[in-house]
Every structure is written in structure tokens, then in C-alpha cells.
Automatic annotation (TrEMBL):
UniProt xrefs under InterPro entries: Class_I_gatase-like
Main EC class the enzyme belongs to: hydrolase
Lineage: Bacteria, Bacillati, Bacillota, Clostridia, Eubacteriales
Single Gene Ontology BP annotation: proteolysis
Molecular function GO terms recorded: hydrolase activity, acting on glycosyl bonds; peptidase activity
Keywords, comma-separated and alphabetical: Glycosidase, Hydrolase, Protease
Keyword Hydrolase tagged: yes
Gene transcribed to yield this protein: ydeA_1
Protein name: Putative protease YdeA
EC number annotated for this UniProt entry: 3.2.-.-
Organism of origin: Oxobacter pfennigii
Length: 85
């Protein structure tokens, strides 16, 4: 997305700003946000450690289920299916 200019006009994140700055044509450094996931203008970006959060925002955007079911899914995958006190 970076190489093709998609991130030059939306807030976004990734593993590091430096990785983006090394790509030809990237001019979106002022819109880079150091976060796990950023959602802006229909774009969802995430760093490499945010797989569950990334999927969560995709599910929410596509409305693949009710908000309640998506929240349950997120809680299960983020916090584990088996929890001890």
C-alpha cells in the first residue's frame, strides 16, 4: 500500500515509520501513527504484532456478525478461551 501511494493521504501505522520512509513515493510521514491498529477513510493498517486487533477491525468494518459476537470473538482470541482465577 505504501509503494503505491495509498498511505500518503490516510492515517496509518506499521512496524516503523523508517520502513515506510525507505519506500519510493511515500510522503505520508505526517499521517503515521505509532499504534497497533489505525482505521481511517476505509483503510485498516496494523503492525506485525496486531493480528487479532487487525482481524477485529476488518470484522467490524465488514459487519460479518453482530457487534456482540465480534466482541466475544475478540475477547476469546485476545484473552484466551480458558481462564483461571
Amino acid at each position: 500500500m505504501c509503494r503505491h501511494g495509498f498511505l500518503n493521504h490516510v492515517k496509518h501505522t506499521g512496524d516503523s515509520l523508517e520502513l515506510f520512509q525507505n519506500q519510493q513515493g511515500y510522503t505520508g510521514q505526517d499521517l503515521y501513527v505509532p499504534a497497533q491498529v489505525v482505521v481511517d477513510k476505509g483503510f485498516i493498517t496494523a503492525n506485525e504484532t496486531a493480528a487479532v486487533e487487525f482481524a477485529y477491525h476488518i470484522f467490524k468494518t465488514l459487519k460479518i456478525d453482530t457487534d456482540e459476537e465480534i466482541e466475544k470473538w475478540f475477547d476469546n482470541f485476545k484473552n484466551g478461551a480458558v481462564r483461571t482465577l
